[in-house]
Amino acid sequence: MFFRRFSLLIYALLILVPLLIVVLTSLKTIQETFRNPLGLPESGLQFENYAAIFQEQTMAGYFMNSTIVTLFSVSLTLFFASMIAYGITRLNNWLGNFLFILFTLGMMVPAQVSMIPLYSLMLDLSLTNSLLGLILVNIATTLPIAVFILTGFMKTLPRELFEASTIDGAGNWKIYTKVAIPLSLPSLSATAIFLFVMHWNDLLYPLLFITDNAYKTLPLALLEFQGEYSTNYPMLFTGVIIASAPMVIAYVFLQRYFVAGMTAGAVKG
């Protein structure tokens, strides 16, 4: 018992100490940061860093770009993934198993492997420097994991519910919208949080496809605080905290659904 508590304490410190350093650094001047990186702010808390971030119109635009890309990516991925998962569950034969394996194989392809062909494809379609291009890439790359999670949950739903709905005259679309989706809300919420974190923090694809400042997302914009010879750590960490705030807020309000959704499809019976 003592070893377990000690291990949990060490684990908590490994998370809290870096987080505390980030918060304290965001409240320092750049001179204080380099003079005493791990110390407390010497001249009081410098909230001017946060004010400077919000006063920059370009940063507000980056925040809006991230919001648009993330919301559309998550919504459309959930929409397509839920329909695919419902179809695989309803088939319940070799074709359903084949489709499930096919989408599962998509999880095995690292993003770095497809960078060059994906960039060539997006360039040919004139979708570079475009929020639409980022949204389409996000959907394509995260659809397999969303299908995997939602299929695992929908397979635990009683088939008698679908059969009863069919006997009552309901078609597949009505069963999907009136039966499958309401019962899958915990799993949908968990998948939504998972996708939100992935898309909101994504740096690879914006770095690969976006060069125009008008279409930069927040993670890509944070690189502007890092120069060739020096880095403005107070402003960088301030941007990191602001960028992390939506994820923290979303998890606080949806954590009940997140835990329920991640455990709902774990066992069957």
TrEMBL record:
SUPFAM superfamilies per record: MetI-like (SSF161098)
Residues in ABC transmembrane type-1 domain copies: 63-254
Membrane-spanning parts: 62-86, 98-119, 131-154, 175-198, 233-254
Superkingdom of this protein's organism: Bacteria
Compartments where located: Cell membrane
Membrane topology, from the record: Multi-pass membrane protein
Keyword field: Cell membrane, Membrane, Transmembrane, Transmembrane helix, Transport
Pfam families recorded: BPD_transp_1
InterPro entries tied to this protein: MetI-like, MetI-like_sf
Family: Belongs to the binding-protein-dependent transport system permease family.
Name recorded for this polypeptide: Carbohydrate ABC transporter permease
Protein species of origin: Planococcus wigleyi
